[in-house]
Design brief:
The structure is a homodimer of 172-residue chains. In chain A, the strands form two sheets. Chain A has a three-stranded mixed β-sheet with strand order 4-3-5. A two-stranded antiparallel sheet of chain A has the order 1-2. By secondary structure, chain A is an alpha+beta fold. The relative contact order of chain A is 0.10. Chain A contains seven helices and five strands; from the N terminus they run ααααββαββαβα. Chain A has two domains: 95 residues, Orthogonal Bundle (Arc Repressor Mutant, subunit A); 62 residues, 2-Layer Sandwich (Dna Ligase, domain 1), CATH 3.30.1490.190. Chains A and B meet through β3, α6 and β5 of A and β3, α6 and β5 of B. β5 of chain A pairs antiparallel with β5 of chain B. Chain A binds a DNA duplex (30 and 30 nucleotides) through α4.
Chain lengths: 172, 172
DNA sequence: CCCCGGGATGATATGGTGTAACGCCGCAGC
DNA sequence: GCTGCGGCGTTACACCATATCATCCCGGGG
């Protein structure tokens, strides 16, 4: 990788935004300039990002931006499956690859799970059908009709776990 | 059930509180009067209840109560496995039956899942080992070391689903 | 007896998160 | 042109959570 660790390169980012815009159009929605700006900020962040952090960054381009500005954009992007909300963090992440999930046979409202490293804050999205099926089965067994499922696992990512082994004294 | 729909009867409530107090003592902790009052309010609520709603009720008994009062009590109760936090709602529920879960072989930090009815707000806790196992497996397969897992399913409870069928016009 | 340490609580202040409500503007369709 | 609608600006507010310092109580040691 030639870029930094702060996110994808500018070119890849714009390409992803163009793909997202095309996907929105295909669903009869429009990725306006504002929504595109917010999505770009979310995708550029290596970690989940809070709404007010987005707001601060957004004000560079739009001095008049206020909370509803960013929340409305985020609502739209969530409906389009372009970003997800991480409930445990009150924060938002770009969807790893909605198109890829379409290839797996899922719609834009695809099931997903988050792995949140409590040490470094990295958050990974996975898409495990066994988990989704187990949750849906358990819900239905209780007479419940599931609509949307949140699965968030807090723990240690491989890198942080390795560091913990190398210097256990720093953690205990 | 002979009681109302607003929660368990007073006698059953006090019995549960006594059991909780005994459990705390066994773990070397103390269910003080304040904590007992907060736990009673949580258990008496048929739905997840926000911290500030608890605070309002608590002020009937403790006029000087402030946010930290109730949050500290809630932190303690969560550590003891007597209440859970529902992330999607920023609210708290009493644990269905920590003792029952102990019988199932789980500690007081037992895995659990929530079924949240988006129509009536009812929230049920289930404890499905297949779900917990599937999530843990998926996380480990990604090189992740899980510590705590949140599973929350939003949908329709059986009662609300039946009502929706009976009067679909009211929903569309 | 006094002091001291720790846990629990009281009290104040502040920061972070999310939404309601109203109005304006631009555009498509009649 | 009027109207309806979606997107956005703007103000104000409600709700959620924590930091910080002070106080009280109680049991142990000197």
């Amino acid at each position: 990788m030639a870029g930094t660790t702060t996110g994808p390169g500018e070119a890849a980012l714009e390409a992803a935004l163009d793909r997202a815009a095309a996907g929105c159009l295909a669903r009869g929605a429009q990725l306006t300039e504002l929504r595109r700006q917010v999505l770009k900020l979310v995708l550029a962040s290596p970690h989940p990002v809070g709404a007010y952090a987005l707001l601060d960054q957004l004000r560079a381009a739009r001095p008049g931006a206020a909370p509803p500005t960013v929340y409305r954009a985020l609502d739209f992007l969530q409906e389009q499956g372009l970003v997800h909300r991480v409930e445990r963090l009150n924060a938002f992440v770009g969807c790893a690859g909605p198109e890829a999930h379409h290839h797996c046979g899922h719609g834009h409202d695809h099931p997903h799970q988050f792995l949140i490293c409590g040490s470094c804050g990295a958050t990974a999205e996975i898409c495990d059908d066994r988990v989704a099926a187990a949750v849906a089965d358990a819900a239905r067994a209780a007479g419940f009709f599931p609509v949307r499922t949140t699965v968030e696992v807090e723990g240690r990512c491989a890198a942080c776990a390795a560091m913990t082994q190398a210097a256990p004294a720093a953690v205990r």
